[in-house]
Amino acid sequence: MIAVKNQSAFRIIGWTFHHLVWISLWVSIVTVLYYYTDLKEIELPWLPISVMGTAVAFYLGFKNNSAYDRMWEARKIWGAIINSSRAWGMYIDGFVSDHFCEDSKTNEEIQQVKKRLIYRHIAWLYALRIQLLVITPWEHANQKGMIGVYGRKIRKKFGVGLVDDEVTKVELNHYLPQTEYERLINHKNTATQIVNEQSRDLASIRKENIIDDFKHMELEKVLYDFYIHQGKCERIKKFPLPRQYANVSQYFVGIFIFCLPFAMSSLFYHLHPSGVWFSIPLSILVCWIYMVMEIVGDYSENPFQGMASDIPMLSLCRTIEIDLREMLGETELPEPIKSKNGILM
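RE: above sequence
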């Protein structure tokens, strides 16, 4: 997540510089050929180009709105995860006791049960985050050629690469018993199995009468909510913005950029032959604006790909971790995740 109010113009230009280079070359080549060759005999009227630009702008608006909807839905899901996680901690703290036990438990034994259930939930949070960051075939870092190279660079420099140190401090085996860790980490969907392990543990402590039937059912309902939240995240992760919408806009923008300098050169040339040179900066500016609109939507449609436009899952996980460990009465807590270079992950 970009954590600054305004991005600097230099960062935006640097983010799109490779596009600015080829746009500038194309516009300059067309303008020079138009002025010094017979290319001026092939004139593209301004009116159809302007109509094309309007249509492309509408299409980009549709795509960007759809991409924003996916990103905002992902943020709402993680907001629900925060709420359900706090409810889980509250229930564990209030429900788990020795009131109904035939053999009374010591405070230390009850505290160990609470800690086990809460720590296992923290492990679920980080397991879910790790699974959501696995690169899918349609995400930028998994592409071939320049797009893939640039995607991996952005992911490293302005994405998950910023927080490698923090991630290594929070490993699953810190929150799971060693036997559970070795067993659960080998599953295809570790997060799913961690929640199932929670359910098994609830059944076990119910047999010991540490919780009664009502409390058991309430806690199971919260576990069901976790599955709902996880499933919603996986739906966004595993089902992309339909490619027939996402890819077509790239072709439309490319066609518009291809045609624009022909019409712009002709327009300025008819005003004054020397005025054709003024069409270069203006054409570059218009083409760049359309390309930026395309890129904004393209990088926003996948909110779990480990880049600057992502949902700040690590920060949210750490926030929940701190809240739950405070419910256990712990005082030695990790620091909240802070933004780096204006990016919060």
